[in-house]
């Protein structure tokens, strides 16, 4: 079973038949009328058995499936696309699949969870023999060896949601000469339970031409640990105080099995950097509050979901662009909403305005398109519309390569609100409500910003190369660089 958006669930039987259900009540009840078609399954397709495809996932009527290659000497790599035209009204209108179902929209996908801690060995070994063990640790490299600690209970302090957990420090990790990048402390307890504490190692001095900014303020806004975050229901006309001193409940470092626009989404970008030998230095949002380092880089790369920005952060990037810097925006929903964060005031971020309403930059006369060249449109959220490469632009060309040809790609969409001399490199065709573009633009300074207008997701479909600080309650450190 998979799905869930709009109350719609898809279920696949053992022989590959797919069925449609829709829960209408939305309140946990199961009274008459709570389910479409009285809760009875509606048959919508065949051939979706585990011998043919796996890793099915669906949003807004779109179903993706990674198909198993029938040639056992070749890898599983094809991503196929299907869409129900009337996914919310199948019970009333019947099953209406649009033309082109089963189209190949991507390659390079796998049915195997890669970059995880996994391994294998011989099924038996003779007494006195040697056991060969093959282990794959997800590309991680250990930067601090495991240490064992006795666990203890740390009680929450009054007002922890706003002021932080205020727990006592149990140990200190010497940084040493670790490479700049994304790292985690890996906590491993009894029965194999693992949790991760993410952090960034920034360079003492800029070393590379590329600076990568990880959107910690956004990840913190979506962190639901303790049941309190930016999206918690609250009808008070007041600002929301969200602490930065608490565990991350959304720090997925291993493949979570669903679309993740948090840390795992960022790891997909890091994986792409690693695969393409892109050297970079790593920072997180609030490092822009002291931006002296920024002007020393040729380009600043914004990661998967850079939604929340303080005025200091935005001013730093605008000044960097005005001075000839470059920005590459690889995600979506970027620079969407303002927050305030002053470290000297306390370990918290202030969300929303004084009336308790969303504090969008565009409502303050500073739309994100002025910096990024594109803007997010909430009406296209999770639409999964395909896009087409359609521009002859030097950005697509490497030395000795041919220019890009028009080709369909899977993707999500947002409406671009382009400014200045913006040119679309990639577009979403014939979308009923909005459009999406990968754009490049230049201004008076000799610079270029490359921006992707989409709902938040990563740049690569493959899993990341990682490294850790391991801590089997135990603790240790890994670096993602």
Chain-wise SSE layout:
Elements: E1 2-3, E2 8-12, E3 18-22, E4 42-45, E5 53-59, E6 62-67, E7 78-83, H1 90-93, E8 103-106, E9 117-121, E10 133-137, E11 141-148, H2 160-163, E12 181-188, E13 194-201, E14 210-214, H3 216-221, E15 240-243, H4 263-275, E16 281-284, E17 299-302, E18 308-309, H5 311-322, E19 326-329, E20 337-340, E21 348-351, H6 369-372, E22 387-389, E23 408-409, E24 421-427, E25 437-442, E26 449-452, E27 468-471, E28 474-480
Parallel strand pairs: 12-27, 14-16, 14-17, 17-19, 18-20, 19-26
Antiparallel strand pairs: 1-2, 2-3, 3-4, 5-6, 6-7, 7-8, 9-10, 11-28, 12-13, 12-28, 15-21, 20-21, 22-23, 22-24, 24-25, 25-26, 27-28
């Amino acid at each position: 079973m998979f799905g869930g958006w709009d109350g719609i669930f898809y279920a696949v039987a053992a022989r590959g038949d797919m069925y449609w259900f829709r829960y209408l009540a939305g309140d946990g009840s199961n009274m008459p009328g709570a389910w479409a078609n009285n809760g009875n399954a509606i048959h919508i397709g065949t051939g979706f058995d585990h011998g043919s495809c796996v890793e099915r996932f669906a949003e807004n009527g779109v179903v993706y499936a990674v198909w198993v290659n029938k040639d056992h000497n070749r890898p599983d790599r094809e991503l196929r696309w299907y869409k129900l035209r009337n996914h919310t009204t199948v019970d009333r209108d019947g099953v209406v699949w649009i033309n082109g179902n089963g189209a190949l929209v991507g390659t390079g996908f796998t049915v195997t969870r890669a970059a995880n801690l996994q391994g294998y060995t011989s099924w038996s070994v003779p007494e006195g023999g040697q056991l060969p063990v093959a282990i794959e640790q997800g590309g991680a490299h250990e930067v601090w060896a495991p240490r064992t600690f006795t666990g203890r209970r740390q009680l929450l302090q009054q007002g922890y949601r706003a002021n932080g957990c205020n727990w006592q420090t149990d140990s200190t990790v010497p940084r040493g000469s670790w490479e700049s990048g994304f790292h985690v402390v890996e906590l491993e307890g009894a029965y194999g339970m693992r949790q991760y504490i993410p952090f960034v190692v920034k360079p003492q001095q800029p070393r590379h031409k590329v600076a990568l900014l990880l959107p910690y303020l956004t990840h913190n806004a979506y962190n639901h640990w303790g049941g309190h975050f930016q999206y918690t229901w609250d009808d008070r006309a007041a600002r929301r105080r969200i602490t930065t001193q608490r565990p991350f409940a959304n720090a997925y470092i291993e493949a979570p099995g669903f679309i993740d626009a948090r840390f795992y989404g960022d790891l997909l970008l890091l994986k792409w950097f690693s695969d393409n030998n892109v050297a970079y230095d790593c920072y997180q949002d609030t490092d822009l509050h002291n931006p002296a380092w920024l002007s020393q880089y040729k380009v600043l790369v914004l990661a998967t979901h850079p939604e929340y920005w303080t005025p200091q952060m935005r001013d730093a990037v605008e000044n960097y662009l005005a001075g000839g810097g470059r920005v590459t925006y690889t995600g979506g929903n970027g620079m969407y909403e303002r927050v305030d964060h002053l470290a000297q005031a306390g370990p918290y971020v202030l969300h929303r305005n004084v009336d308790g309403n969303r504090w969008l930059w565009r409502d303050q006369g500073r739309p994100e398109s002025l910096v990024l060249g594109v803007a997010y449109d909430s009406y296209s959220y999770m639409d999964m519309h395909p896009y087409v490469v359609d521009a002859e632009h030097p950005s697509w060309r490497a030395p000795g390569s041919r220019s890009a040809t028009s080709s369909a790609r899977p993707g999500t969409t947002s409406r671009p609100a382009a400014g200045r001399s913006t040119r679309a490199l990639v577009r979403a065709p014939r979308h009923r409500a909005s459009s999406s573009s990968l754009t490049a633009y230049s201004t008076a300074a000799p610079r270029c910003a490359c921006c992707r207008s989409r709902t938040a997701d990563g740049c690569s479909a493959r899993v990341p190369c990682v490294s850790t600080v391991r801590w089997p309650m135990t603790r240790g450190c890994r670096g993602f660089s």
